[in-house]
Structure formats: structure tokens, C-alpha cells
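Re: the 286-residue chain
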Amino acid sequence: MTLDPYSVTLLSGAGGAVAAEFFKKAWNSGERWLNKYFQEHQPEAQEKAKENALDFLVDLGNRIQKLENAAEDDSIIKNKLETALSDPDFSAILKDAILFSSRTSSEEKHSLIARVVSERLLSESGSIESAMRNMSIEAIFHLSSDHLRLLAITCFMETMEPSQAPSNLQEGEYKKWWAEWFIKHIKALMPKGEVLYFDYIHLVSVSCAALSPLSIQLKDIISNNSKLNLYDVDLLKEYSIGLELLNLWNEGIKQVRLTSIGYHLGVYVIEEIFDEEIDFKFRKSK
């Protein structure tokens, strides 16, 4: 599967010179890496691996195109885009991303890995942000869709609250509004399959979480405004998803403490599911 420059530009959707050039170089390097990695595999497996990797690179190319468009007057960002593949650390991370993405057809994983790589591109090598994103790529590959949702739902409950509520609500009305806002997001983030305690152990094995013997009270997690005394979960029991959440909490999430990797992957999954950057306020842990 050899692509000519014209096909590369079309596939990447990259009208900008920087993004198109990045995509072409990334694919040229990626094809060499894939040929070597899968050289002893069946031809069908080799072809499928290249198709998977190309799907990932198309997503990445589109994201870099957006960065290029946004950085039209930003010489620092444009320089990072132009010189990214000259950075050995970034090149190594791109190789990992291509090889991991080649082994799965999951659009969800391709999208998450592409986001991590595009944001890693703007991080300084050696920084905590770059180290975290480097580690996140492998973690994504080893997590199922429901594992990713567990990270998202834990992140959501521990750190996020609505940026604003309708004005002039009475206390009881605010509690009702808050419960509906909370349930709406929880419903979208809830794992689709059965969650076992072993799933939480797996999150630990890929450095996304730790399990604490001391469990957090759900009433403390969801109380986003002490002045309104939102310390009970009775409102959640009025919703079927609320009851599912309470069960999920008691069966394992209450012991989960997210690492920096788990936290940021949780944020990414939330934003990918809602297809936008959610305007949340982030609060310190209590």
C-alpha cells in the first residue's frame, strides 16, 4: 500500500502545506515501521495493519490541519509543527502510536490516540505533559471501551461541576436542575457492559488508577455547592441511571483514585463522547 503525494493530501484532508507534509512524512516512516514489525505475518494481516494505521493517520492529519489553521499567526506553534518529526522523542512516540493503532480497527481508540499525539506535538520534550501523553498512548491500546468509560465517569464525578446554572433558582429547584444535569452526563458516560472488580485491577495495571482501601463517600463527591447543602444522593434514586451509578460506585469506583494518565484520558473521553470541549469548572479534591 504505497501512497503517492496527491493521494496522501486527499486522505489527510490537509489543505495546508504543513499538515500535508507532516502526513506524507509520517506515512512514509510509518509504512517502513509497519513492514518491519509485521514482516513475518500473513499478507492479509499486513494489509489490515496498514489500513488501520492509515485510518489513525488520517485522523491525526485532520487534527494537525486544525492546529495549522489556528496557528496561522503563531510562529512558535508553526515551527513545532514543521519540526516535530525531527524531535527523536516525538518520532519515537509517533512510531508507538502507529504500531498500536495498526493492531486495532477501533475508531474510538484511533481518535483518542490521534488526540494524544496531536497534543503531545505541542508539548515540550521532557515535560510532565509530554511524559504523561507518551504513557497514555500505550494505555489506550490496552483499555476496552468500557475501561475508558470508567475513567471518564470517575473523572467526571470527582472533578467536574456545571460552569453555570440558570439564575434565580430556589434551593429545591437548583437541586432538581443539578440532578438532571448530572444524570444527563452520567447516562452518556456509563459503561455498556458488565463491570467486574477485575476491571478496576486492570486500570491499575496500565497505570491509570490506584485502588485505595479507604472509600470516598458518594455524597461528598457530588456535593458541588456546600451552601446549598447538596450532601445526599436521594435525588439520584429517582432515576434508573442514578441507581445504576450507585451500584457501580459501591461495587468498585469508590476505591478508585485516578493517576495523571487516568485523569487526562477521562477528560479526553468525556470531550470525545460529547463532541465538544465541555466548559467545566475543575475543583480541588476535598
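The chain has two domains: 5-137, 145-282.
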